[in-house]
Amino acid sequence: MSVRVEQEATPVDEDREFRREIRDWFAANVTDDLRGAGGAGRENEAFEQRSEFARRLAAAGWSTLAWPAEHGGQGASLARQVIFHEEYARSGAPGRVDHIGLTMVGPTLIALGTPAQRQRFLPGIATATELWCQGYSEPGAGSDLAAVTTRARLDGDQWVITGQKVWTSLAHVADWCFMLVRTAPVPDGASRHAGLSYLLVPMRQAGITVRPIRQLTGDSEFNEVFFDEARTERDLVVGEPGQGWRVAMATLGFERGAATVGQQVGFQRDLDDLVALARRTGVADDPAVRERLTRAWIDLTVLRAHTLRVLAAPPAAGTATVIKLLWSRWRQGLGELAMTVLGPRGVAAAPGDDEADRWRRLFLFSRADTIYGGSNEIQRGILAERVLGLPRQDRR
Ligand SMILES: Cc1cc2nc3c(=O)[nH]c(=O)nc-3n(C[C@H](O)[C@H](O)[C@H](O)COP(=O)(O)OP(=O)(O)OC[C@H]3O[C@@H](n4cnc5c(N)ncnc54)[C@H](O)[C@@H]3O)c2cc1C
């Protein structure tokens, strides 16, 4: 007589199955024209195909893994989110077109939006049929965000918005913008954070002009956005009018997370490709280059270990900031190293030299890594004051 022992599937087995399922889906859906397209510094590449891919990804249920089930998501465990982002990066799937909606405004509406706002906007974000941009920075308000001067006043059932935003990524393709505007003067003796509001504004209207800014790479991924009596509905303010600072900061808190792990898988691929290039061209024989490549590998290994440790542990002060400081400097270093490996080809590549173009774009775009999402100087200031308890900087 034989005895069959039924074993319950453990979470580890299930996660393994989950990984296989995702891997199969990417194998079937990441076609050659999509592989490696888009991403930072290449946002305009194959935009239509990437949008279609995002819609397919959403239809398969992969886009909203991190969202709670009651808001149309899968409520997936952190382990599964990490698996998804790893496999996404490993498959060479294209840069997302819908990340601002999915990782910034979507979670903000889930946490702080009204039921009507969630009902109106979450489905469009989840299905990648409505794209978003972030309207925070202005010519006089970047690091000092509370200095925004774009203002909005109520006119009947609508907000009327006048002012200018700048560096607005993807505004030229966005359907909606979440923005921080001043809706009331600073009350006497109050902080400048009072009187700001967080509005959701339709981009396709007569009162909005989007003017692309040409970047170092030669491409235009961000824009100046001018608001001349632009309008949005009165109930499209998230949180209370005048309390927008809290909402704006909550959005920034959602920006990172499990996706960081996928980003680092992409970094590893970049490094592997650069090592292969150095070997192929003989540059790897140079002891100084060998040392820099090895150092890059060590630093990336440490960064990944630190990121996984942070994700697995309860959030601690400053940890997300440390990750941003480390990865931004790491990628800039890789760009600089790529220029060394390429040599004269880095500055005088023949037209159609896609390999040189890839590394040149990485080098040029990575200059921005220490600026957006809060510059590295600001991040270090936050660590100094909030984690180390050093004296506050004098800000007049
Ligand atoms: C590629 C890219 C995409 C972006 N996308 C968006 C977007 O979609 N939406 C959006 O709203 N914004 C976006 N930004 C803008 C970004 O958030 C700002 O560039 C950033 O906050 C810095 O502001 P700033 O450019 O006005 O520089 P400033 O604030 O003028 O800073 C200039 C320099 O002074 C330093 N500095 C300023 N204050 C201090 C201080 N207190 N202590 C020490 N040093 C200081 C800064 O670190 C920096 O080196 C993007 C920027 C880039 C580069």
Please give the largest β-sheet: 4 strands, mixed
Mean pLDDT: 93
Form type: globular
Low-pLDDT segments, ≥5 res: 1-6
User: Can you list the strand order of the major beta sheet?
Assistant: 1-4-5-8
Which structural class is indicated by helix and strand composition?
A: alpha+beta
Secondary-structure element series: HHHHHEEEEEEEEHHHHHH
**Beta-strand share of residues:** 5-15%
* Total beta-strand segments: 8
Descriptive report:
The chain has about 400 residues and is of the alpha+beta class. The chain has helices at about 10-30, 45-60, 80-90, 100-110, 115-125, 245-255, 260-280, 285-310, 320-340, 355-365, 375-385, and strands at about 130-135, 150-155, 160-165, 175-180, 195-200, 210, 225-235, 235-240. The radius of gyration is 23 Å and the shape is globular. The model is unreliable at about 1-5 (pLDDT under 50). Bound molecules: flavin-adenine dinucleotide. Flavin-adenine dinucleotide binds next to strand 1 and helix 11.
Keywords:
four-stranded mixed sheet; alpha+beta; 396 residues; 11 helices; 12% strand; binds flavin-adenine dinucleotide; four-stranded antiparallel sheet
Task: Provide a quick synopsis of the model.
With 396 residues, the chain is of the alpha+beta class.
Chart the SSEs and their pairings.
Blueprint: H1 11-29, H2 47-59, H3 78-91, H4 99-112, H5 115-126, E1 132-135, E2 151-155, E3 158-165, E4 176-182, E5 196-202, E6 208-212, E7 223-233, E8 237-238, H6 244-254, H7 259-281, H8 287-312, H9 319-342, H10 354-365, H11 376-387
Parallel strand pairs: 1-4
Antiparallel strand pairs: 2-3, 3-7, 4-5, 5-8, 6-7
The chain binds flavin-adenine dinucleotide.
